[in-house]
């Protein structure tokens, strides 16, 4: 299982030439991907479906490391502030509804469910703070 997850992580890094600093996020996302596909150990059952007793939402799968625009809720912005900001898709939320994202300017993770994905475009990371 470790080899499977490691190989998926390597593919994620190579696809968008991402920083190795995101290895934790990549490991979590790779594990999620492994858990939503059929597994021969349990008779071709999907581990996610066995655990949560529902089918995974495959339409929510996205490209790791891609650029996104995350909508900023009205309560978190003023009238003339931007309505969305750039971020990088780094995974799926287990606690909340939505996606786990990394802010392109502050490099801080956050969650959002109102997101526009640019799956063919690499997300940008602010290198000044790293």
TrEMBL record:
GO terms for molecular function: DNA-directed DNA polymerase activity; endonuclease activity; hydrolase activity; metal ion binding; RNA-directed DNA polymerase activity. It comes from the Eukaryota. The keyword Nucleotidyltransferase applies. InterPro entries: Retrotran_Ty1/copia-like, SH3_retrovirus. Residues 66-123 form the Retroviral polymerase SH3-like domain. Signal peptide: none annotated. GO terms for biological process: DNA integration; DNA recombination. The keyword rRNA-binding does not apply. Keywords: DNA integration, DNA recombination, DNA-directed DNA polymerase, Endonuclease, Hydrolase, Magnesium, Metal-binding, Nuclease, Nucleotidyltransferase, RNA-directed DNA polymerase, Transferase. This is Retroviral polymerase SH3-like domain-containing protein.
